[in-house]
Amino acid sequence: MGLMDFIKGELIDVIEWTDDSRDTLSYRFPDEDKAIKNGAQLIVRESQVVQFVYLGEFGDTFGPGKHTLATDNIPVLTKLKSWKYGFNSPFKADVYYVTTRLFTGNKWGTANPIMMRDDDLGIVRARAFGTFDFKITDPKLFLKEVAGSDQNFRLDEFADTMRSRIVSIFADALASAKVPVFDVASRYSELGEALLPLINPVVVAKYGLQITSFIIENVSVPPEVEQAIDKRSSMAAVGNLNDYVKFQMAQGMEKGGSSGGMATELAVGLSIAQQIMQQQGMPAAAGAAAPRGAAAAPSPVSAELLSPADVAQALGVPESDVMTIIEAGELAAKKIGTSYRIKRSALDEYLAR
Question: How is residue 2 annotated by DSSP?
């Protein structure tokens, strides 16, 4: 091997990189400690950008095309190397290829719950996950803040590096959007589009990336909050409590056959009769007439005072429903010690409403 062949072997005359991995974000051209000669050819394909770095400082940037490395093409490097008479000797520099195409279907998610302030529920812990598409828009900033001097920076490394950063920005954007937790589930796609203008300025400024699509697939709250939401939905479905209790009474009447169902039927019948008599201008009877030929039953004081359990049995509803209408003031009751007692006349008055 002659001297000229040896010298040529120590110089780089063609710089190019063919990406066949589909998941590489940046790639440092392997120079094998060789120098780049004057007039070397630089080939940059579509969806690629080449960034020169000299002694830790950013040099010239090249877009797609075939470039001849001469003084006119590398003004920044010429200045950094202080070539007084132009580029006329081999030099060494790091050459980074940065992929600028769109990377789709990248997953994101909250490893830990994020705190949200909600107008309806107060402060809520929520988990979220989804996907996003992105592309590199500022190769210098991306190399500086994300990839660094990595020889071959791939998508899996990016996911580990950026997941926490994306989640942090998402949490801030979601707080700024002030979307109620109750509305999040029905507005996934709208919320993702609304968050893009809030997320992108931060991502572009900090990392040199642009997120083109941000998709929220699920936002979940802790089980106890879900139970509270279910209870709220149940209360909304019940509506008017008085109507609900009467509905329960009607259900008890349909069952029939039990003393509770029979008592409920008699009580409702008495209430209807009193309402008819009042509408016709007739005084309401103090009590129902005994059947002909039947002996009148005694009326002890205990028969006039009922416990919540007695009322519940008479109406065919749970005792908790009776306590609810007592506490709401809809059914008059007297509290004696820790127990309530209800006059039968108060029960008749409630049924007559």
Answer: -
Decide which of 3 and 107 is more confident.
107
Strand order in the sheet with 35-44: 11-15, 35-44, 65-68
Are 10 and 92 within 8 A, CB to CB? no
Measure the CA–CA gap between 154 and 23, rounded to whole angstroms: 6
CB neighbour burial string for 193-223, b if at least 16 within 10 angstroms, e if fewer: ebbbebbbebbeeebbbbbeebbbeebbbee
Structure tokens at 53: 């770095």
- Find, among 149, 53, 54, 143, the residue nearest to 99 by Cα: 143
- Give how far Cα 229 sits from Cα of 151, 234, 236, Å: 51, 9, 11
Mean pLDDT of the chain: 78
Rounded to an integer, what distance in angstroms lies between the CA atom of residue 274 and that of residue 282? Answer: 9
Asked whether the beta carbons of 82 and 55 are under 8 A apart, the reply is no
Cα 41 to chain centroid distance, Å, stands at 50
SS3 for 288? coil
> Quick one: how far is CA 49 from the chain centroid?
36
For residues 13 and 69, the answer to whether their CB atoms sit within 8 Å is no
Annotate 153-181 with three-state secondary structure: EEHHHHHHHHHHHHHHHHHHHHHHHCCCH
The reported pTM is 0.59
Structure confidence at residue 60 (pLDDT)? 93
Q: Tell which residue, 307, 335, 308, 341, has the closest CA to residue 324.
A: 308
210-245 per-position pLDDT tens digit = 999 988 888 887 787 777 767 766 666 655 556 666
DSSP 101: S
Q: Which amino acid is at 270?
A: L
Taking the C-alpha atoms of residue 166 and residue 110, their distance in angstroms, rounded to an integer, is 9
Could you tell me which residues are beta bridge partners of residue 124? 116
Distance CA 174, CA 260 (A): 54
Q: How far apart are CA 89 and CA 83, in angstroms?
A: 9
